[in-house]
Amino acid sequence: MKNNQITHHAVTGGVEKAGRGRQILDRIFSGMFDHVMIYPQIWEDPEVDLEALNLRKTDEILAIASGGCNLLNMLTESPDQIHGLDLSRAHLALNKLKICAIENFENYEDFFEFFGKANTNKNILNFDKYLLPNLDAESKKYWQARAPFNKRISAFSRNFYRYGALGNFIGFSHILCRLFGMQPQKLLHTKSLDEQRICYNRSLGRLMKHPLLRILTKTPIALFALGIPTAQYHELKGEHKNISEVLEERLSRLACNFDISENYFAWQAFGRRYDTQGRKAIPRYLMEKNFKKLKEQIHKLNIQQKNLTEFLSERSRDSLDAYVLLDAQDWMSNEQLTALWIQINRTSKPNARVIFRTAGKKNILQSRLPAELLNAWSYDWEESYSLYQKDRSAIYGGFHLLKKI
After folding, report:
1. What percentage of residues in the chain have a pLDDT greater than 90?
2. Which residues of 242-270 are buried (b: 16+ CB within 10 A; e: fewer)?
3. What is the pTM of this model?
4. Nearest CA-CA partner of 90 in 2, 6, 29, 164
5. Contact (Cβ atoms closer than 8 angstroms) between residue 320 and residue 62
């Protein structure tokens, strides 16, 4: 199956009998997903993932790659092997770039400058010297290509995290804020949760209730930049009259529920950068203490462009310990979900763990899978909800952990 066919099949669920409007939206999203960097940074909290997975050094893991942060964060726990899958060529190229940087940069500061700061001319010099000679042909082609005027790699001299669909969405949000006389970055200078709440309620909290926002978020296409296809848009909306109500709830949680001095998701949302001075609000893979370990462990990570079910169908029985599915199941039809879980049941070892997130609050598997496929798994709603409450990214409605009995 060709690259664009893989993506289109995943987004549409292989269902061509949907309404004409839905088909058009799905085709727009699948085309964008296949050609545009959606997530310069992954938006799932790795500390929650790692607490749920409780990784062992013998574990073999299957994970959706996305921007690659989660794979590298898991690698700091020294598992046996990680298989990272993604459908987006842009995400694959970013993952290969990170792997190449870990293998070839001689010191931590160059690595942090490239992926932590991501905004200096030195990064382009280091790309030419250390990375370009060692990248695979497809990744070289991707990063050397122009999009549309400058080479893609030049984004690392101009704050890489401002680019991609998500970066552009956050940038547009900041423009809206300025039009209304608000400065989201002020949140980064607050000193307590109380100050965070006061600052949010005086600025972004008011903006989120503005009628203009309700108009802008009225159709699914408005959230394509967040990596949310049409099917997931409806899951996210749930019983709310307007999606803006859900966005307000999630943004309030991001701004008010977690110490902003350590929440790198909030720094990206409100400051469009990491904490490059104090280096507290950064993902663990960018911490200096983990650089040497990543160099030692990076050979355990392999990246492929395949969908989950295809990859699992080629695996032997009882061969995997952990599955990190992100929010991919929200995109799937019932038929795709069933096919995936037949393979998860077949390939999972005793005591295997599966984690995933949902746009809405509910565990979608309980209503969409044949009951016999879940008989081998335990699901503790209270444990999953407790983990969800710790998720600093605040973008999802639910976090779910299943354990094989």
Report:
1. 70
2. ebbbbbbebbbbbbbbbebbebbbbbbbb
3. 0.90
4. 164
5. yes
pLDDT band at 77 (very low <50, low <70, confident <90, very high): very high
Q: What is the Cα–Cα distance from 234 to 228, expressed in whole angstroms?
A: 10
Neighbours of 25 (CB within 10 A): 22
Cis peptide, bond prior to residue 350, ω within 30 of zero: no
CA–CA–CA angle 224, 229, 221 (5° rounding)? 40
Tell which residue, 304, 285, 305, 349, has the closest CA to residue 323.
349
Q: Dump pLDDT digits (tens) for 232-291.
A: 666 666 656 677 888 889 999 999 999 999 999 999 999 999 999 999 999 999 999 999
Angle at 220 between CA 218 and CA 224, to 5 degrees: 125
Half-sphere exposure of 164 (CA within 13 A, CB side): 26
Q: Specify the 3-state DSSP secondary structure of 357.
A: strand
| CA atoms 165, 167, 173, 176: torsion sign | negative
Q: Compute the distance between CA of residue 335 and CA of residue 327 in angstroms, rounded to an integer.
A: 17
Q: What are phi and psi of 180, to 5 degrees?
A: -100, 15
Please report the pLDDT score of residue 215 as a whole number. 79
Identify the bridge partners of residue 62 per DSSP, sorted by sequence position. Answer: 83, 323
Q: How many residues can be counted in the chain?
A: 405
Letter for the amino acid at 110?
D
